[in-house]
Amino acid sequence: MKRLIASTLAGAMVFAGGAAWAQDAVTLQLKWVTQAQFAGYYVAKDKGFYEEENLEVTIKPGGPDIAPEQVIAGGGADVITTWMAAGLAARERGVPLVNIAQPFKTGGLQLTCLKETGVETPEDFAGRTLGVWFFGNEYPFYAWMAKLGLETDGADDNGVTVLKQAFNVDPLLQGQADCISTMTYNEYGQVLDAGYTADDLVNFNYLEQGIGMLEDGLYVLEDSLEDPAFADKMVRFVRASMKGWKYAAENPEEAAQIVVDNDTTGAQTLAHQTYMMSEVAKLTAGSNGALDPADYEQTVATLLSAVSEENPAITTEPEGAWTHMISDQALQ
């Protein structure tokens, strides 16, 4: 497939060099709602980076009832942001997603516990209730529990109770769970905003626990890359998006304001988005947009180390799930 993409992409470049580009439409489906997690894309649009690449980009916010993998499969988007575990799971189930760029170098997923519960290390999880996000976000959790040798069918001496956590921190604040899922750039800040201090909390970062899984990457359908015009659009889209991410990291307060201005719900506050942008910048640091194959292999190895009925992300080694053909052209 890589040879095919290279050939078609080269053809598109030759064509583009001989004629002025018309503004091409691109629809991006986000994994979640409008927030600084996606600041690079909103900044690229607001600062005119997409327009400079002759792109008209529509950014579609996500939400609890929106699965980006289903949206792109149904033709509702050209490109999506999602976590690699979810992308690989969708690919194994017949949605041939391909990672074309990886703006997030590291991940922000963690398990946050109240120190007063007595949880100090992962060895203290047995007998506890742990809050877990689903809809494709549960794969890292089940891989971790498998690595620890903990069952997930109920709290006992060798198991935990899994609480299906909504996308808020209420289970921790209301005492329904000993630990909950948080992102460093969002829910963790919400716990702090609720009045707890960092000294009141114990955090277990998945990466630090050896459960390395790539988070927000850019994915397209494999067949679409065979179209030279589409591949050319993605080159320009990735180039402008990474310019947006660089600008956002260097100008976090302005980026946060741009995010707030694009939030049509009015739910986001400048203070929280500024906090989020500062934390997200830590995750994008070190990435120029190209996927590091070592990070991909770590994600796959982690998923395959814990295959079970509860954790059916992937069951076999994926093939053709990423390419550098777009990022090589975009970032040269």
TrEMBL record:
InterPro entries from the UniProt entry: NMT1/THI5, SsuA/THI5
Catalytic activity: N(6)-(pyridoxal phosphate)-L-lysyl-[4-amino-5-hydroxymethyl-2-methylpyrimidine phosphate synthase] + L-histidyl-[4-amino-5-hydroxymethyl-2-methylpyrimidine phosphate synthase] + 2 Fe(3+) + 4 H2O = L-lysyl-[4-amino-5-hydroxymethyl-2-methylpyrimidine phosphate synthase] + (2S)-2-amino-5-hydroxy-4-oxopentanoyl-[4-amino-5-hydroxymethyl-2-methylpyrimidine phosphate synthase] + 4-amino-2-methyl-5-(phosphooxymethyl)pyrimidine + 3-oxopropanoate + 2 Fe(2+) + 2 H(+)
SUPFAM superfamilies in alphabetical order: Periplasmic binding protein-like II
Alphabetical GO biological process terms: thiamine biosynthetic process
Signal peptide feature range: 1-22
Matching Pfam families: NMT1
Pathway the protein takes part in: Cofactor biosynthesis; thiamine diphosphate biosynthesis
Keyword Ion transport carried by entry: no
UniProt GO molecular function: metal ion binding; transferase activity
Domain called SsuA/THI5-like: residue spans: 36-255
Gene3D superfamilies: Periplasmic binding protein-like II (3.40.190.10)
The keyword Ligase is assigned to this record: no
Function noted in UniProt: Responsible for the formation of the pyrimidine heterocycle in the thiamine biosynthesis pathway. Catalyzes the formation of hydroxymethylpyrimidine phosphate (HMP-P) from histidine and pyridoxal phosphate (PLP). The protein uses PLP and the active site histidine to form HMP-P, generating an inactive enzyme. The enzyme can only undergo a single turnover, which suggests it is a suicide enzyme.
Family stated for the protein in its record: Belongs to the NMT1/THI5 family.
Subunit comment: Homodimer.
Protein name (database record): Thiamine pyrimidine synthase
